[in-house]
């Protein structure tokens, strides 16, 4: 079934698709902006006969109007064993004529942030060490993934504000850099250690 997926994390969706369908059954076309040449290449791939299911995936922050229009016919009459998945971060990227032909899956589900259990206003080195060891164990077990680490960072920062801890601009910039590191698949220890040490030294009101 052809569909649109709306999401924040393209890498996570790609990983989920690979796990579900297998890498050999996927043909992925990914650009910041999907152009007519990209949809033409995707259509050419779709018309190559396959005995097994083949998933054509187009991923972009933007989809050119002419690129979308070029897909209309093949989305109406998709070849046997072929499925199209269009992925972006907003359904408004897609023309009404495209949206009307496809199922829309919205993955912008509000995440419930975890509770850290930390007293961030009185954070000791022992507290930091115990917390880190717990998260590293969860990471090794595959429980704490990249999305989970992002949520954990958000939860820690949110609890800081709730507990009256203020950050200066340099500290806020550092937190943003840690988020970038998470996107680069940096391990929990390398992200959480500097964050928690910074919090333990932060000026508190």
Automatic annotation (TrEMBL):
Pfam families registered for this protein in UniProt: DNA_pol3_delta2 (PF13177)
Transferase keyword on record: yes
Transmembrane segments: none
Keywords per UniProt: Nucleotidyltransferase, Transferase
EC main group: transferase
Signal sequence bounds: none
SUPFAM superfamilies attached to this UniProt entry: P-loop containing nucleoside triphosphate hydrolases
InterPro entries reported for this sequence: P-loop_NTPase (IPR027417)
The keyword Nucleotidyltransferase is annotated on this UniProt entry: yes
UniProt GO MF annotations: DNA-directed DNA polymerase activity
E.C. number: 2.7.7.7
Designated name of the protein: DNA polymerase III, delta prime subunit
